[in-house]
């Protein structure tokens, strides 16, 4: 068994972001394998990142030291069961990125006694700017914990979560979170266009604004509320916008959306 071979089971959107992030950060492509049933996705992954892509999960997993389970929650059981004989024989470190699915479910589907780390990354991993929450089951030793952490550190920031039940909240906040920012970008662009800006101009102004604001949040060390107050001149334009957001219940809308995503994670664990 190769010490450093990583097998991705599933080569879709999130696997692609992680593989791209790993390769960009100097991980040798020949140490990465992917199992992906869709031929075009296999070809694109091999072409773009130089990784070995295979059709069947056991083919990619055989001999790999770490398995990254990157299939949809709905097919996770069948995929794990197809890998159970190999898991029992080789005892890899199993890293799941699936929403909702618990370490106990993965362990049981793989036949039991497996070291399983449940993680929740996000797509900015492609740029090394991801955020990943991680939870380890009791079979994971310190060396395996570090291996999982270092895998996800190649994709950005990592945070260990002590209580697995909180992984659904991590999923709702940072796993799905990039989509909320993209939705805000769509809405701001459309609103700018509605006020008469050319589409290209609206897009450029919105994306630089989001980038600049995110950098201020990250680099100033100041709370979001303080940064917001500094933009908000009394009686000015920002105040008019913020009062409109508050009157329309933006905080409640965000709270309800994140609660809905958290609930959905729990349903996925029940096969929903
Ligand atoms: N898209 C995202 O931003 C994030 C996704 N995730 C998790 O990542 C997992 C994958 O999600 P996406 O990449 O968005 O979905 P996706 O549908 O793009 O990727 C899943 C891939 O698995 C492949 N697949 C299906 N059956 C397979 C099998 N038996 N063996 C190998 N591959 C198989 C599919 O052909 C597909 O390409 C999900 O469990 C999701 O919860 C986690 C964090 C963020
Ligand atoms: O939407 C989903 O279910 C996955 C998990 C987090 C982001 N995408």
TrEMBL record:
Write out the catalysed reaction. Answer: L-proline + NADP(+) = (S)-1-pyrroline-5-carboxylate + NADPH + 2 H(+); L-proline + NAD(+) = (S)-1-pyrroline-5-carboxylate + NADH + 2 H(+)
Instruction: State if Oxidoreductase is listed as a keyword.
Output: yes
Taxonomically, the superkingdom here is: Bacteria
Q: Which Pfam families match?
A: F420_oxidored, P5CR_dimer
Pyrroline-5-carboxylate reductase catalytic N-terminal domain residues are: 6-100
EC number, UniProt record: 1.5.1.2
Its job: Catalyzes the reduction of 1-pyrroline-5-carboxylate (PCA) to L-proline.
Alphabetically sorted, this entry's keywords are:
Amino-acid biosynthesis, Cytoplasm, NADP, Oxidoreductase, Proline biosynthesis
> What's the protein name?
Pyrroline-5-carboxylate reductase
- UniProt record similarity statement: Belongs to the pyrroline-5-carboxylate reductase family.
A Gene Ontology CC term for this entry?
cytoplasm
Q: What are the subcellular locations of this protein?
A: Cytoplasm
Q: Which residues bind NADP(+)?
A: 9-14, 70-73
Per its UniProt entry, what is the enzyme's top EC class, as one word? oxidoreductase
Where is it chiefly localized?
cytoplasm
Q: Which residues form the Pyrroline-5-carboxylate reductase dimerisation domain?
A: 164-268
Return one GO MF term. Answer: pyrroline-5-carboxylate reductase activity
Q: Which Gene3D superfamilies match?
A: NAD(P)-binding Rossmann-like Domain, ProC C-terminal domain-like
- Copy the pathway line from the protein's UniProt record: Amino-acid biosynthesis; L-proline biosynthesis; L-proline from L-glutamate 5-semialdehyde: step 1/1
Query: Which BP terms does GO give this entry?
Result: L-proline biosynthetic process
